[in-house]
């Protein structure tokens, strides 16, 4: 399955959400950023909100965009307005150097390995 991940800069977020000010999407994005999360635009071929594997597919796409020594922590989906184009905006943190092959804590395991 083809996918792409683009982490959005502050400028890109400002441009997008200045047009969508006072929407739930803009408020969720602002809250995520205030909590220290980054926002990524994830595009996955044939993505659907009804897909029972959506969370898994998003996690794998994000994990494959960072080094194997990092773990991804997803906070949530901040903007689902482009689902018809197979795109979703995700708030996430990259926990650098915290991946562990045999971790008992799920926060330190990568599902794509």
Walk me through the structure:
With 113 residues, the chain is an alpha+beta fold. The chain has helices at residues 10-19, 24-34, 54-63; strands at residues 3-7, 38-44, 71-79, 87-95. The longest helix has 11 residues, at 24-34. The chain starts with a strand and ends in an 18-residue tail after the last strand. The relative contact order is 0.21.
The oligomeric status of these chains comes to single chain
The helix content, as a percent range, equals 25-40%
Strand content: 25-35%
What is the tally of helical segments? Answer: 3
**Order of strands across the widest beta sheet?**
1-2-4-3
Largest sheet: 4 strands, antiparallel
Low-confidence stretches: none
Question: What structural keywords apply?
Answer:
single chain; 113 residues; alpha+beta; four-stranded antiparallel beta sheet; 3 helices; 27% strand
Q: What's this model, at a glance?
A:
The protein is α+β, with helices and mostly antiparallel strands and 113 residues long. 27% of the residues lie in helices and 27% in strands.
């Amino acid at each position: 399955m083809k996918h792409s991940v683009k982490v959005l800069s502050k400028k890109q977020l400002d441009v997008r959400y200045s047009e969508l000010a006072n929407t739930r999407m803009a408020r969720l994005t602002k809250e995520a950023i205030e909590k220290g999360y980054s926002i990524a635009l994830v595009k996955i071929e044939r993505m659907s909100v009804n897909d029972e594997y959506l969370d898994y597919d998003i996690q794998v796409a994000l994990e494959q965009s960072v080094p194997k020594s990092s773990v991804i922590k997803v906070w949530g989906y901040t903007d689902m307005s482009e689902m018809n184009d197979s795109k979703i905006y995700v708030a996430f943190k990259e926990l650098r150097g915290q991946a562990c092959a045999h971790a008992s804590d799920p926060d330190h395991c990568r599902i794509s390995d």
